[in-house]
Amino acid sequence: SDWEKRVSRSARRASPSSLAVLITGAAGFVGAHVSLALKRRGDGVLGLDNFNRYYDPNLKRARQRLLERAGVFIVEGDINDAALLRKLFDVVPFTHVAHLAAQAGVRYAMQNPSSYVHSNVAGFVNLLEACKTANPQPAVVWASSSSVYGLNSKVPFSEKDRTDQPASLYAATKKAGEEIAHSYNHIYGLSITGLRFFTVYGPWGRPDMAYFFFTKDILKGKQITVFEAPDGGMVARDFTYIDDVVKGFLGALDTAKKSTGSGGKKKEPAQLRVFNLGNTSPVPVSELVAILERLLKVKAKKKVVAMPRNGDVRFTHANISLASKELGYRPTTDLGTGLRKFVKWYLEFYPGSKKKSAWLQRL
Ligand code: NAD
């Protein structure tokens, strides 16, 4: 059928050494960037996304158009649809799955808890079920989260640190994903790599994240709420620029070993890895606001309040020595440089948000 032709054309490997990758969450922020980066270097890429309405569907559609122009087709469907996954794996012998589909966001879990269970737990299991029976069995690289470190206060966070105190349902489902990965690796010999992202930001970013809605509200002259720790300590994030995360993700795909197949009887155990992908340089949220004020040339109307118990943690900071050693991961973008690129994109994407002026041309 036409659909099958488009699917196999999009995902076809350019050479035996290139990859054939199924990217779930391809219309999402990180998924779109990973798709483009793989396509640019000649890998076969097929996207899958359910285009849910958690945030502005127009932004997801715009990312889809960007990908289609680059030759990446996105199938509209849910990772919980077993028949659809079976069909995709039948049409294309994927070598890798880049799993970025999830219900993201920490605070929304208080409003819609079941969407986290649906996408991050049930959906992940359904995807691994499809990988398990696919021939060949693809190596899986998926997005976990720095939130698994939860209330652990020992910083910087290293992969060996405790992850048994999630501060939100979102974090709990990401932690569950890591345990689920362990079981599929153990029983079925699936090669699985979890990447713990630390507050990823940049062009085409997510409207529910602070850097994004601060930009929007500052430009509108609307008051923004900045959290401070109840004891006056700083609230800070290890903001990581999207291009750095994409390089880490590609490093994980390129070093992923083949799945060994079921039984785990083979001499070599199947690969199971977890890495931090952070920036190793936490920045207080107050400094994030100051950088945005400088870039936007607008003074923010700030309301500073004590952080409520809403699932957020106070501080994140990645130790990245493992990813650096094993994946060649080296983030190079500081927050000022990355936010400049974000703001430039924002003003182009939402042209009504600020009159074009000389300073904008210089960004
Ligand atoms: P995003 O919301 O922009 O992308 C996720 C995409 O998955 C969306 O386009 C959504 O429509 C799709 N999706 C959700 N549920 C689905 C389902 N059941 N079936 C099919 N598609 C579905 O989020 P993002 O920022 O690109 O995040 C990508 C991954 O990285 C997620 O797993 C997220 O939890 C994780 N992560 C992101 C950050 C960050 O700072 N951006 C930090 C830590 C972890």
CATH class placement of the domain at 2-201 and 240-277: Alpha Beta
- Beta-strand residue fraction: 15-25%
* CATH fold type of the domain at 2-201 and 240-277: Rossmann fold
**Could you tell me the radius of gyration in angstroms?**
20 Å
Give the strand line-up of the largest sheet. Answer: 3-2-1-4-5-6-11
Can you give the helix content as a percent range? 40-55%
- Low-pLDDT parts are none
Order of helices and strands: HEHEHEHEHEHEEHEEEHEEHEHHH
CATH H-level superfamily title of the domain at 2-201 and 240-277: NAD(P)-binding Rossmann-like Domain
What is the overall pLDDT average?
A: 94
Largest sheet: 7 strands, parallel
The coarse silhouette is globular
Number of strands: 13
CATH architecture of the domain at 2-201 and 240-277: 3-Layer(aba) Sandwich
Total of DSSP H or I helical runs spanning 4+ residues: 12
Bound molecules: nicotinamide-adenine-dinucleotide
Distance from first to last alpha carbon? 47 Å
Helices and strands: which structural class? alpha/beta
Protein described:
- The protein has 363 residues and is α/β, with parallel strands linked by helices.
- It has a domain at 2-201 and 240-277: NAD(P)-binding Rossmann-like Domain (Rossmann fold, 3-Layer(aba) Sandwich), CATH 3.40.50.720.
- 41% of the residues lie in helices and 15% in strands.
- The protein contains twelve helices and 13 strands.
- It has a seven-stranded parallel beta sheet, sandwiched between helices. The protein has a two-stranded parallel sheet with strand order 7-10.
- Helix 5 (113-133) links the parallel strand 4 (96-99) and strand 5 (139-145).
- Helix 7 crosses helix 9 and helix 9 (285-296) packs across helix 11 (335-349).
- The longest helix has 21 residues, at 113-133.
- The mean pLDDT is 94.
- The structure holds nicotinamide-adenine-dinucleotide.
- Nicotinamide-adenine-dinucleotide (NAD) binds next to helix 2, helix 5 and strand 5.
